[in-house]
Amino acid sequence: MNSEMAGVRGAPRGFAVVEWTIGIGLIVLPVAVLVASLAPWFHQASMARTMAQEAARALVLADDWEVGTDQAATLARQIARNHGVEDAGWCAGGSGCVSVRFDGDLVRTGEVTAIVSVPMQGITVPFIGSALGFQWSTEHSERVDDYRSFDR
């Protein structure tokens, strides 16, 4: 401290190291963790939307419901594999796994819907892991053509 500041009352006497450490720990790191968590959320959401769109389209083009749902589910699994989801990550429904189900009627002027559910990682803390995961669902509907003929 120089001699000019010694006698001045109210001279700035900050604790820069303490303030900097608290600022980094309480502001910058939590924001960085949140930003790092956003990319996997967008990736999983994009994958789910693509799966729902393509599965509904495959089902609406099929000749019957059973064959169509099998083809649509196979297509959805392939899309998930392309995004790094292994077959072990699939289930019939519930949390923590990828699932696809179908609803609607495969008849003229009908509508079919593919509902896809994917797990989302919660907040990912570096060197520790992730917590607060949740399940996210999306759906896509396709209308069956008014003049569609079915092989029966």
Describe this structure in words.
With 152 residues, this protein is an alpha+beta fold. The chain contains three helices and five strands, in the order H-H-H-E-E-E-E-E. The strands form two sheets. The chain has a three-stranded antiparallel sheet, covered by helices on one side. Strand 3 and strand 4 form a beta hairpin. The longest helix is centred in the first third of the chain and has 45 residues. It is elongated and about 95 Å long.
Provide the descriptors you would attach to this structure in a database record.
152 residues; alpha+beta; three-stranded antiparallel beta sheet; two-stranded antiparallel ribbon; 3 helices; 5 strands
In short:
The protein has 152 residues and is an alpha+beta fold. It has helices at 3-6, 16-60, 65-82; strands spanning 99-104, 111-120, 123-125, 129-131, 134-143.
What layout of secondary structure does this protein have?
Elements: H1 3-6, H2 16-60, H3 65-82, E1 99-104, E2 111-120, E3 123-125, E4 129-131, E5 134-143
Antiparallel strand pairs: 1-2, 2-5, 3-4
The percentage helix is: 40-55%
Q: Which structural class best describes the helix and strand composition?
A: alpha+beta
* Mean pLDDT rating: 86
Biggest beta sheet attributes? 3 strands, antiparallel
List low-confidence stretches.
Answer: none
Quaternary form: single chain
* Strand order across the largest sheet: 1-2-5
Q: What is Rg? A: 27 Å
Shape: elongated
**What's the total helix number?**
3
The strand count comes to 5
The fraction of residues assigned to DSSP E strands is 15-25%
Termini gap: 94 Å
What letter string, H or E per element, gives the SSE order? Answer: HHHEEEEE
